[in-house]
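Narrative summary of target 7.
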Amino acid sequence: MAGFAGVGQQFLDAAMAAPLLGRDEERTLALRWKNQRDEAAMHALARAHMRLVIALAVRLRHYGLSLPDLIQEGHVGLLEAAARFEPDRDVRFSTYATWWIRASMQEFILRNWSIVRGGTSSTQKALFFNLRRIRARLALKGGGRTHGEIVDEIARSLGVAPADVEMMDARLSAPDVSLNAPLSDEDPGAAERIELIADSQPLPDEAVAAAIDARRRVNWLEDALGSLSARERWVLRERRLIENAATLEALGSQLGISKERVRQIESRAMEKVRQALAKRHMDAAAEAMI
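Modeled conformation, tokenized:
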């Protein structure tokens, strides 16, 4: 069979030769599995519908994944359907199994179509598997729509945001490119794409200098705070140095003074710290000039 390279001929022959089941035979096998846990009956039910797996795999092979892999994933979905099928429901097994087979194949496609994980929500899955079809249908209708109008119509039909349509369209139109791929296919010694990606991190000497400066500033601040009285340090810490700063009223209540008095203590403490830091900065500048 053309297009089935990689799929065992014996497997295909067995799948196509499996007899179709009538409604009564199907129900009998399903009841044997449900009531007696007869695994042979479950597998017989699944085996009779392998041609359904192959048909669905052929319909989904245009996503670029191998047909044998799609059939294998579809077989997993078929077995899941056989294990879950309720014979008392008024529905044929093929109808029930189609959803499980397609869902298993689609999950496999989403996991392997791109190195970038996507399409995890139901709306994103609908976009992935229906965007091209809907775009082609709109193109056949014509009407001179702009790109934006087409995007809006697709978004409305699938119940997603236009931005999601734009993003999925970009992903479907551009294949993955390895960062280790050479910039030129004709030059074996060409640089790799990853070599052109700028590193946003500082250079090692800049990182060391920043760490030293940060430690120096912390030491200066600790020395400046040491010049304050115990009450000034406490007010300044509660007002400026903790994440949830206290209000003037709250500190005044704790100290038994007015909020205006607390504000004065805070202002005086801040001025002392500024003066101490300014002096340290001037001393450091003078040392650097020697």
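The mean pLDDT is 80.
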